[in-house]
Automatic annotation (TrEMBL):
It catalyses: 6-phospho-D-glucono-1,5-lactone + H2O = 6-phospho-D-gluconate + H(+). Hydrolysis of 6-phosphogluconolactone to 6-phosphogluconate. GO terms for biological process: carbohydrate metabolic process; pentose-phosphate shunt. Pfam families: Glucosamine_iso. This is 6-phosphogluconolactonase. Belongs to the glucosamine/galactosamine-6-phosphate isomerase family. 6-phosphogluconolactonase subfamily. The gene is pgls. Its EC number is 3.1.1.31. It is an enzyme of class 3 (hydrolase). Pathway: Carbohydrate degradation; pentose phosphate pathway; D-ribulose 5-phosphate from D-glucose 6-phosphate (oxidative stage): step 2/3. It comes from Sinocyclocheilus grahami. Keywords: Hydrolase. Residues 13-230 form the Glucosamine/galactosamine-6-phosphate isomerase domain. One of its GO terms (molecular function) is 6-phosphogluconolactonase activity.
Length: 253
């Protein structure tokens, strides 16, 4: 891959509209050459952005989409912390994606078994014993530079064999989670980070422009043969000195 494309928007609304168009265009591209479009979702602000903007994309047919999750909290789907539960209530009911095309964890299992079970679901869905290759992953970043449930200085950053791993000591509650590993993230054809708000400015600068100490987890995301986008708003980009893109209204990526 070449370097990341850092695209700065005046508002979250304009960012969200462009994100929806980017997802739609990559879906059309994947479906024109294959049987499905595989999309990995993350929680946080992405839930509300996608729930508002994706249904508004005209002629969006999700019947051949395959939805997975980049990470998930080990809580019941009815729990407000459940990423699947949030998307089910806010997005999935608005778009025509078949329920069997949504890959969710089994929250009734212990964390290790849950990770193994989810890895098995990915293997079956992608028909491979190797690393599944998603068409697109949508990621967020915490103020500590974590992404998925991969946290700074955590041993999981060194994981090279598993596609999905359990974590029982998340520094951010809830402690038990399931997460894609870096090899899975970096196998994707397109990875899109969404980062908004002034609180993200210092860590965004460190991730994109470097700094002292070990690289933060978000800085380790570098798709081997794919695209990498950072879609950010002006407050998040306030500390950046490197070159960025500022597209005009209605521009497509």
């Amino acid at each position: 891959m070449s370097g990341p494309r850092v695209v700065v928007f005046p508002s979250v609304a304009e960012l969200g509209s462009t994100l929806a168009q980017l997802v739609s265009s990559r879906a059309e591209k994947a479906l024109s050459t294959g049987e499905s479009f595989s999309l990995g979702l993350s929680g946080g602000s992405l839930v509300s952005i996608l729930s508002k903007e994706l249904p508004a994309v005209l002629s969006l047919d999700c019947s051949r989409w395959l939805i997975g999750f980049c990470d998930e909290r080990l809580v019941p789907f009815s729990d407000p912390e459940s990423t699947y539960g949030l998307y089910k209530n806010q997005l999935f009911e608005k778009i025509n994606i078949p329920e069997d095309r949504i890959l969710a964890i089994d929250p009734s299992l212990p964390v290790q078994e849950c990770a193994d079970d989810y890895a098995g679901k990915l293997s079956k869905a992608f028909n491979t014993e190797q690393i599944p290759v998603f068409d697109m992953l949508l990621l967020g970043m915490g103020p500590d530079g974590h992404t998925c449930s991969l946290f700074p200085d955590h041993p999981l950053l060194q994981e090279s064999q598993r596609t999905v791993a359990p974590i029982s000591d998340s520094p951010k509650p809830p402690p038990q989670r399931i997460t894609m590993t870096l090899p899975t993230v970096n196998a994707a054809r397109c990875v899109v980070f969404v980062s908004t708000g002034g609180s993200k400015a210092p860590v965004l600068k460190q991730v994109l422009e470097g700094g002292e100490g070990p690289a933060l987890p978000a800085a380790l995301v570098a798709p081997r043969q794919g695209e990498l986008f950072w879609l950010v708003d002006e407050p998040a980009a306030a500390s950046l000195t490197s070159q960025v893109e500022r597209p005009g209204p209605g521009a497509k990526l």
